[in-house]
Amino acid sequence: MTMSAGSRRQLATSPFNRPAPEAPPVELYAVGDRVSHDQFGLGRVLAVEGDNAAVLVDFASRHGRIVNPFTKLTKL
Fold first, then answer.
1. What torsion, rounded to 10 degrees, do the Cα atoms 34, 32, 59, 71 define?
2. Which of 12, 52, 60, 67 is the most exposed place for a label (fewest CB within 10 A)?
3. Residue 24: enclosing H or E segment and its boundaries?
4. Could you say which architecture CATH assigns to the domain 28-76?
5. Among 68, 60, 66, 65, CA closest to 43
6. Domain boundaries, the chain
7. pTM higher than 0.70, yes or no?
8. Cα–Cα dist 19/30, whole Å
9. pLDDT by 10-residue block (mean), the chain, 76 residues
10. E strand or H helix at 68, and its extent?
């Protein structure tokens, strides 16, 4: 009897059989929120475009437009 790879039973503790991780909730920003960016540092939200599609942030040395998803931006 030969077994193909598709017919093998997966163990419940197998690391290859884990469900996909859930996406973290999308952070909602408002004008005036203090934020921290991994590359640009501390800043303050100046404007929010659309339905949180992008935010304009005033960092001390420059303004930056950060688009959704905000992976490097954290609300303080």
1. 60
2. 12
3. none
4. Roll (2.30)
5. 60
6. 28-76
7. no
8. 34
9. 62 74 82 95 96 93 92 92
10. none
